[in-house]
Write a structure and sequence with these properties.
The longest helix is centred in the N-terminal third of the chain and has 32 residues. It is built from 26 helices and 21 strands. It has 737 residues and is of the alpha/beta class. α8 packs across α9 and α11 packs parallel to α12.
């Protein structure tokens, strides 16, 4: 395997232990190559200073400005000292404050007229913006020799790179570290095939690295960015194209429904006709199932668009062909719900082999972790003998003890709740790789990224079935307008008076010592960020307050994840039967819970939930013929990003649109790894939403490169780049899909 020794040199050899340690721990940079690919976030122009007038509150910023004046104030009867420095850039002024012993060095160094770079978090005090105890580095002629001095003139020109930084390692210190490793850029091996690079007019990789870190002109930055974006898109597309190519070589059993079999019998007893969308998507799935390599398809359907019906018909087609189908659900509540609704839809077809069952029928079994031993033993037996054609279950399906007679299709509901390893373990239970259908109502960022990257074949269900109602969504600003919250509870009562039911969702269960302990660690971390934020509202307390207060006289019950499975099921059955007016619950109702008579939902502390979660929750109402209402209650102020997010959710019911909003806010997570939270992205220059054209073009090039040379024998530079991108874990992750 080709290696690039200079770029694999550990940073601690070149930069020393302490700096390397901070880089490794906070920025995930370990080698010279990692640091060379840590690109500047933006550039400051010398002479054209950052606009102080446009600084964002509560964000870490780096500004270049001039000291206007400096004053020392005393307080506490002369015992305490505070240094206040005003800096200006022509557009605005900003206050810097230093306290105690920390005032001596800046008082001596930051004299009126001197210029420096300042880094810190913007806060508000006495209605004025300020940086408290910022770090700083003096510039140009003002720069003294020493650790924090920055000699801009040595940066050959006008553009100062501003790097993504962290506590203890400011942008200018990263710039110094980059200076130390920049000579190694000459040894970077170019991953792009030469014909492709020249055909598209890209600069060579060493030149791109030099230009991105030390540009002389804006054109340099543009050259470098175009080239480095392409590298990321192309190498990733080659990885995905190789995987698709390998998948295409895998054998799978073609599954075609038998004429006059189970699927035809099921379709004949349906009390409604399928929507056009359901017909179209079913055809795509049946075409895939009929091929001799594994289907790998994402079914993206609006909440309530009938995905379960499409999936069930695919499962029945597989049973018709002599195989078995498994549906993996993320929670016991949902697995039970799916089992119940599928057996109801199938009627006597779900009682194969039983008295009164249909000849064409099959057995439908449920398998969850909390089942009693006898029922569990019977379910396992039905699976291994092939008696049960359909199984619906939770993670319990993945355990080693579970054996199938002939697993032909795996359906994963709400894909983002399962790790890749879990899906892979289930796929590994087939004699040959089973077909895979993944369903989701809102693609989370990583899924959207993968969809844009074309890794999964995608089917979209965007029509609601006849009889489904629209959902009106509104933000309720409880802090600014308390009477809006009072009106929300009146609306719930009105819905109940009409004979309907409602959900109230809270972020926390509450009233539990165990929860208090786990929350303690989290709380400390959060306190630093949001000193004034109260703890999230809890189900148990909220239910009590509502029953005694605004919802007095209504039948209020609770549902949460720490209840015993039988108790949860009993509450859901009572709610489904209309014996409960208001269900106060955690997100355990987020997916799949289907109570057509529930028309209203109030989500408390809605700002504590993600965009896709809110969309999922909202999909629990409006499932019958009466219109749905979803109220998003928040204490967040109008100008906050949280309110903007809630307004976006209230403004659209389109899952794809919401996932784009989510993606823009959270980044795509590690596209090849498991960090779905968006904290770490393997994309440094490319943004999935803005660069779809680059990605599409790179995909075309990648497909033709892989078709011509699947093992990349003639492209050692590209193989090296793939090895760097796909360390062992990610390679396996990609293989598992």
């Amino acid at each position: 395997m080709d290696r690039v020794p200079a770029l694999e040199e550990p940073l601690k050899k070149l930069l020393g232990g302490p700096t390397a340690k901070v880089m490794a721990e906070h920025l995930d940079l370990h080698t010279v190559g990692d640091l060379l690919h840590h690109y500047p976030r933006r550039y400051e122009e010398r002479g054209q200073l950052t606009k102080l007038a446009e600084l964002p509150l509560d964000e870490d910023v780096t500004v270049v400005a001039q000291v206007a004046d400096a004053r020392v104030h005393t307080f506490n009867g002369g015992r305490g000292q505070r240094l206040e420095i005003t800096i200006t850039d022509g557009s605005g002024r900003l206050q810097l404050v230093f306290f105690g012993r920390g005032i001596h060095k800046p008082h001596k160094e930051l004299l009126p007229g001197s210029r420096a770079m300042f880094a810190g978090k913007v806060s508000m005090f006495n209605r004025r913006m300020q940086l408290a105890h910022p770090t700083y580095a003096k510039l140009g002629a003002d720069a003294a020799e020493g650790d924090d001095a920055v000699d801009i003139d040595s940066w050959a020109g006008a553009l100062i790179p501003i790097y993504p930084a962290c506590k203890g390692l400011e942008s200018w210190k990263i710039a110094k570290a980059v200076d130390a490793v920049l000579p190694s850029a000459q040894e970077a091996v170019d991953p792009l095939p030469e014909a492709l690079r020249e055909g598209r007019g890209f600069v060579p990789l060493p030149e791109a690295l030099l230009k991105v870190h030390r540009p002389h002109t804006k054109a340099d930055i543009e050259d470098a960015r175009q080239r480095l974006k392409w590298d990321e898109a192309f190498v990733l597309q080659v990885a995905l194209a190789r995987r698709r190519h390998a998948d295409g070589q895998l054998p799978a059993v073609a599954r075609r429904p038998a004429p006059g079999g189970l699927l035809d019998a099921f379709d004949a007893k349906l009390p409604f006709t399928l929507t056009e969308g359901q017909e179209k998507v079913s055809k795509e799935i049946f075409d895939d199932l009929a091929t001799e390599h594994p289907m790998h398809r994402l079914l993206q359907g609006e909440v309530g668009s009938g995905k379960t019906m499409v999936a069930l018909r695919a499962m029945l087609a597989v049973v018709d062909s002599g195989g078995q189908a498994a549906m993996l659900a993320p929670t016991e509540v949902l697995a039970q719900q799916h089992h119940r609704s599928i057996t109801e839809m199938m009627g006597e077809l779900a009682e194969g082999g039983l008295l009164g069952g249909s000849e064409q029928g099959t057995k439908v079994v449920l398998l969850t972790g909390s089942m009693g031993m006898p029922a569990r033993r019977q379910a396992l037996l039905d699976l291994v003998t092939g008696e049960a054609g359909l199984v619906i279950g939770t993670h319990a399906l993945i355990e080693d003890k579970v054996q199938f007679h002939d697993l032909g299709l795996v359906v994963v509901d709400e894909q983002h709740r399962f790790g890749v390893e879990q899906r892979d373990a289930l796929r590994g239970k087939g004699k040959q790789p089973p077909h895979l259908l993944v369903m989701t109502a809102t693609p989370i960022p990583r899924t959207v990224a993968m969809t844009v990257f074309g890794d999964l074949e995608t089917s979209v269900l965007d029509q609601l079935p006849a009889g489904r109602s629209p959902i009106a969504s509104h933000v309720v600003p409880a802090q600014d307008k308390p009477h809006f919250l009072a009106r929300a509870w009146e609306r719930v009562r009105e819905e109940v008076d009409k004979g309907h039911q409602a959900y109230v969702v809270c972020p926390r269960i509450g009233d539990d010592e165990e929860e208090a302990k786990t929350a303690k660690g989290k709380k400390k971390a959060e306190e630093a960020e949001t000193a004034d934020k109260r703890p999230p509202l809890a189900v148990i307390e909220t239910a009590g307050q509502l029953a005694k207060g605004p919802l007095q006289g209504l039948r209020v019950e609770i549902l949460h994840g720490r209840m015993q499975p039988d108790d949860k099921d009993a509450v859901m059955r009572r709610f489904g039967a209309g014996e409960v007016d208001v269900l106060v619950a955690t997100t355990v109702i987020e997916v799949g819970v289907n109570v057509p008579n529930a028309t209203a939902m109030v989500i408390m502390d809605a700002d504590r939930f993600g965009v896709s979660q809110l969309h999922q929750l909202r999909g629990r109402v409006g499932r019958g013929s009466a219109p749905g209402l979803c109220l998003l209650v928040t204490d967040m102020p109008e100008a906050s990003p949280a309110r903007a997010r809630l307004n976006a959710v209230a403004a659209t019911l389109d899952g794809f649109e919401l996932s784009r909003i989510d993606l823009e806010q959270r980044r795509e997570g590690d596209v090849l790894g498991q960090a779905q939270s968006g904290v770490r992205s393997s994309l440094r220059m490319l943004t999935v939403i803005d660069d779809e054209e680059v990605i599409a073009a790179a995909r075309e090039e990648a497909v033709s490169v892989v078709a011509a040379d699947p093992d990349l024998v003639r492209l050692p530079g590209l193989r090296t780049a793939l090895d760097a991108l796909l360390d062992k874990d990610r390679e396996q992750y990609l293989d598992k899909g």
